[in-house]
Structures are given as C-alpha cells and as structure tokens.
Amino acid sequence: MTYYQKSLGRLLIKLDHFRTKHVRHRNFLIVISFVVGALSALAAVFLKLLVGFVEHQASRINDLMNSNWLTAIFPLIGVGISLILLKKLFNNKLKRGVGFILRSILTEKSRMALKHTFGHVLTSSVTVAMGGSVGLEAPIVATGSAIGSNTAHDLRLPYRDTTLLLACGASSGIAAIFNSPIAGIIFALEVLMIDFNIPFVIPLLISTATATVVSQLLYPDKFFFLIIEGWNVASIPFYIILGSICGLASVYTTNVVEKIEDYFDMKGLNWKSWLRGSIPLCILIFILPGLYGEGYATITQLMKGNYEPLTSHTYFQYLGNKHVAIIVVCLLLIAFKSVSAGLTIGAGGNGGIFAPSLFIGGIVGFLFAYIVNLTGLVELNTANFIVASMAGVLAGVMHAPLTAIFLLAEITGGYTLFIPLMIVTAISYFMTRKYVKYSLYHKALVEKKIIKEDSNITEDYI
Q1: What is the pLDDT of residues 153-172, one digit of tens each?
Q2: What is residue 109's predicted lDDT score, i.e. its pLDDT?
Q3: How many CA atoms are closer than 13 Å to the CA of 321, on its beta-carbon side?
Q4: Alpha carbon distance 418, 409 (integer Å)
C-alpha cells in the first residue's frame, strides 16, 4: 500500500468519525445520493454527446458519398477496439449488461469492482459510436451503479446503504439520458428489484432530480424528445391490436438475442468470435443503414413525418413503389435489429438491449399506422402509435411495464398518451410473459437459483 493510499485511508476514517458524531445518517445519505446522481449524470452526458457527435459525422459521410459502404465498416473497428479493451485492459472480467448488477446486489453485498466505474464508458463509447447496433443505457446504468457502490464502500457504509447508493447511480443514469427522473426511480424498483420504502425513495428522488438538472445544464437540448398529440377513444381497438403485435415482437426479440448470445458464450470471447459477429453485422448495416448505432435518429425523423431515412442509401430506394419499399425496409429492420444487437454483443462490443427494444417498438408502431392509413379506411396518428409501440416492446423485453409507461410519458413531455400506453404495455407484457417467463436480465439468475421464481423484490436479501 502506497503512502497516498494510507493517507487517503486515514482521511476517510477521520471523516467517518466526524460524520458519525455530527451528521444524522439519513441526512448524510441524502448528501451522498446528490453526489452519486451528479457523477452518474456526467458519465451519461459524456457518452451521449460523444456517440451523438460520431453518429452525426457518419451520417455526413453517407450523404457526401451517397452510400454507406464506408460507415458500414465502422462497427468492425469499434467492436474490435472494445474486444481489445475487454481482453487486454480488463482481462475479460468486465461484466456486461444489467444482470451482473443484480448478481452483485444479491450475492456480493452490492459490491462492484472499481473498473466498472470507467470500463463501460470506454468500451460502450467505441462500440456504439462506431455503429454497434446496441444502446448505451445498460453501460450507463452499470457505470452509475458502480459509482454508487464504490462511493458507499469507500465510506464504509453497510450493505443496505450500499444497495441504496447503487440504485441511486443506476436510476440517475436513466434519468440523465432521457430527462425522466420518475422512470429512473421506477427502473430501480422494477428492474433492479429494490425494496420499496420511504427511506429508500427519498435518496432516489434526490439523485435522479440531480442527474436530470445536471444533464439539462450541460446539454439543454434533449438527447431524445418526442412530441405527441391527443388521442381519441375510437382508436382504442387499434391500440389493442398494436399491443398484441408488440407482444409478438417482444417474444421474437428476446428469443433471438438470447440464442445469439448463448451461441457466442459457448465459443468464448476471442478474435474468431469478433470476426463471426462483426462481419455479418457490417453486411447487415450496409444493406440496412438504419441498423447503425442506437437508431434514435431514425425514430425522431419518423415522428416528424420524414420517412426518407428508412430507404436512404439503400437499394430499396430504387424500387418502383415507394410504399412497398418503406414496408419492406420496416419489416427487415424489425427482423434484424435484434440479430444485429446480438452480433454486436457476441463479437465483443458493449451495450444493451434497451435502445434496440425502443427502436424495434418505434418501427413496429410506425409500420402498423402506416399500413392502416394506406387502406384509407381510417386515419391514425402515426406519432402516437410510434410512442405507444415503443413502450409496448420495451415492457415486453424488459418485463418492466411501469418503467416503459413512465419513461415514454416523460419523453413525450406529459401524460397525454397515458391510457394508450397502459393498454399497449399491459397487453404486450402479459403476452410476452406467457411465452417468455423471465427477462434477459433475470433468467440466468433464476436458472442459477440466485433469485427465487416469481421474485419481485430483494427484501429477502437486504
């Protein structure tokens, strides 16, 4: 142990004695939750700004060359760099996804290694910025969780408080990305299965509010913001049908990602798996440029009524019938977004299924409304169906209907579409649960008997 480490240790001990003597524990947790929220927001803002900048440059390259053949190669490079970092810098010990956070809570007293505070930022930034077809939400949640966990460990806090600060970091990451503090809290309660009680909720409120404010100060323009209009009762039957379609899409997405990840897990993380995953991924992105990166830009354009990005820089734009081209591209995007996400992760990239779920949902909702409107029998509000479907697929894949409802409600700036969101997510969730009992986050934990079947909270462990 170095002199500086010893000095830091003595300083922390003195601070701990001072805190114990002069500061009420509840007030201290509120202050620390504020710090964790701010740090998690900084990580989230950095990642989103970096990825957004590179994706914008990639779009400019495509427009300049009138083709995407060059940017289609980017994922090969980005995933390759991520693989090098995972193997050489982190020695294959940097866990990916959200499931390992749950395992840390349940089996490791919420202790997360220090490398998780920066490892996910490094690997996910190169993965997604260079076109890996996954999202930043899982890496940001992992980073925030690690910040909270390590802060609590340095302050020598007990297991329950460590779990609380871990949850503060995770929820703050979601809040900072989407400017959605309530959805961030519900994510911690619903996905991370944190026990619901007042002492836990207050610090969560402080951390997510702080993260949202920090995000707004550093990036006043929202990362992802949708505008919707009011809905009418006559459209309810269509929302019911959409909910069923979202359920089918959720089952398909979950099964595809699971099977691809299982295949790559058996092969191990190596250079052969990098080529096995990256080359097909590049081919898919070349054929369907919409698979590049998170895909939020495409959804935003569809919300604005601009359908050109769907077929831009693809061979489908040369089809004689524009409507046929749009429908075909949408079907292919729905079918292959989950495939490309699985390939990205399996090849060595770092990212999550959160953004792909929202993307697939957005395309499903758009396609449904587009086809119905083509019949001329009724005119559906396309933007509303895009939003409702995003919530439906997210609820099904994550098995988190409340997170999906409140997230999309906050993204759209209000609760105008709350009833349709409830209808679509409820139907999608229950249909998915019929065929897929556990989410991608929880299945491995149930199989290894870390959590009990049908367990909803961690009260048995905390």
Answers
A1: 888 888 989 999 999 999 99
A2: 86
A3: 4
A4: 7
Architecture of domain 233-447: Orthogonal Bundle (1.10)
Q: What is the location of CATH 1.10.3080.10 in the chain? A: 8-218, 233-447
Q: What is the pLDDT of residue 408?
A: 92
Nearest to 370 by CA among 361, 357, 383, 355: 383
Give the C-alpha separation, 348 to 271, whole Å: 9
Contact (Cβ atoms closer than 8 angstroms) between residue 133 and residue 160: no
Encode burial over 418-437: b for 16+ CB neighbours within 10 A, e otherwise: eebbbbbbbbbbebbbeebe
**How long, in residues, is the chain?**
462
Please state, in angstroms and rounded to a whole number, the distance separating the CA atoms of residues 36 and 383. Answer: 35
Q: For tokens 């702080």, what's the residue?
A: 210
Nearest-angstrom CA–CA distance, 248 and 338: 13
- The CA distance from 297 to 75, in Å, is 18
Q: Tokens for 454?
A: 């049908």
Taking alpha carbons only, the member of 149, 135, 133, 137 closest to residue 101 is 149
* pTM across the whole model: 0.90
Each residue of 164-191: b (16+ CB within 10 Å) or e? bbbbbbbbbbbbbbbbbbbbbbbbbbbb
Task: Give the integer Cα–Cα distance in Å for 224 and 300.
Answer: 8
Instruction: Give the three-state DSSP class for 135.
Output: strand
Cβ atoms within 10 Å, residue 290? 26
Q: How far is CA 8 from CA 4, 155, 158, 329, 410, in A?
A: 6, 11, 20, 57, 42
Give the CA distances from residue 139 to residues 126, 296, 459, in Å, rounded to whole numbers and listed in that order: 12, 17, 26
Mean pLDDT within 49-61: 84
Q: Which amino acid is at 210?
A: T
pLDDT score recorded for residue 226: 67
Distances 199 to 42, 168, 235, 313, 410 between C-alpha atoms, Å? 25, 12, 42, 53, 24
Quote the tokens at residue 156: 């020598």
Q: How many Å apart are CA 420 and CA 409, to the nearest integer? A: 11
Please name which of 287, 273, 280, 291 lies closest in space to residue 135, comparing C-alpha atoms. Answer: 291
CATH homologous superfamily for the domain 8-218:
Clc chloride channel (1.10.3080.10)
- Alpha-carbon Rg for the chain, nearest whole angstrom, is 22
Whose tokens are 């001990």? That residue is 13
d(CA 188, CA 166): 9
Task: Output the CA torsion 55→56→62→63 (10° steps).
Answer: 160
Q: Is 53 left (phi over 0), alpha (psi -120 to 50) or beta?
A: alpha
Instruction: State the virtual CA torsion across 130, 134, 137, 138 in degrees, nearest 10.
Output: -110
